[in-house]
Amino acid sequence: VRLFCAPDQVQVSWQQLFLSITVSCMVGTGDAHLKNFGLLYSDPPAGDTRLAPAYDIVNTTAYLPNDSLALKLGGHKSFFAAKLGLLDLARKLEIENPSAIVERVLAAIEATLGSQPDRVETAPDIAHAIRASAQPFEAAFLRPRRGGQ
C-alpha cells in the first residue's frame, strides 16, 4: 500500500485493508492470500492508485474444518490467534479504535445471517461455520453486558 498507493490514498487504503482482513478472519476465510488484495487506478500517471474493494471473502471452514489463515497474521495462521494479530496490525496501520471496527463487523455478520433465513435454512452448515468463526472474536472483543447477559 505504501509503495504503490497514491499518498492521499494510503490511510484510507490501510483502513480498507484492515477491514478486509478483519472480515476474512471473522467469517473464517482461509483463502485470503495475496491475490485477493489488489489495486485500482484510472490513470497510472495521474497517481490515483488505491486498494481495490474487498472480494472473494467466503467461509472455507464449512468445507475444510481445520482450515487456517492463508497468510500469517501476527506471526500465526490460526484464526484463534487473530485477536492479537488484528490489534497488532491495527497499531502498525495506525487504525483508530479497532475494537469498534470489530464490533461493527460482528454486528454486520449477525444482521446479514439474521436477514437471510431462507439461505441459512438452505445452507445451515455454512451459517454455523460463520458463526463458529465469529464466536472467538465475540468472546474476545465484546464487552460483558450488565447482569451477565
Could you characterize the architecture of this molecule?
The C terminus is likely disordered. Helix 1 packs antiparallel against helix 2, helix 1 packs across helix 3 and helix 3 runs antiparallel to helix 5. This protein has a two-stranded antiparallel sheet. With 149 residues, it is mainly alpha-helical.
Helix content: 40-55%
Number of helices: 5
Q: Which structural class best describes the helix and strand composition? A: mainly alpha
Radius of gyration: 16 Å
Distance between the termini: 41 Å
What does the overall shape look like?
globular
Strand content: under 5%
Strand numbers in spatial order across the main sheet: 1-2
Short précis:
By secondary structure, the protein is mostly helical.
Present the secondary structure layout.
Layout: H1 10-27, E1 39-40, E2 50-51, H2 82-92, H3 98-114, H4 117-122, H5 124-141
Antiparallel strand pairs: 1-2
Helix pairs in contact: 1-2, 1-3, 3-5
Which features characterize this protein?
149 residues; mainly alpha; 5 helices; 2 strands; globular; disordered C terminus
